[in-house]
Amino acid sequence: MTDRYARGMEVRRAVLGEAHVDRAEAARTELDDPFQTLITEGAWGTVWASDAITRRERSMLTLALLAATGNFEEIPMHIRATARTGASPRDVAEAFQHVAIYAGVPRANRALKIAKDTFAEMESEA
């Protein structure tokens, strides 16, 4: 295990939560092991571990990029992470406003619906 991997796993757990990471790790197989290592070191151990911007800001950027590129299946996970990163529902809405202007209203509209549904689920689970 590299230092970057260890730091990545620490950040991943802090952002996504213990339960989420435990489920992902339990589902890990020989087939996706190299990919899981790549994202743990690259996304979590490098990008998310950087202190150049806050985790709140990183959440907003991530959600905007996911919506702008149409990667909607990742949005609920990152909406749930806002509970740990400090990005508020208003922050998320503001990020999706940017998506509407720079990447298209349909993508922002769909992302906002997913966010509303996920925030409602989170509220009912509390």
UniProtKB/TrEMBL annotation:
Residues 35-117 form the Carboxymuconolactone decarboxylase-like domain. Pfam families: CMD. Transmembrane segments: none annotated. Gene3D superfamilies: AhpD-like. It comes from the Bacteria. Coiled coil: none annotated. This is 4-carboxymuconolactone decarboxylase.
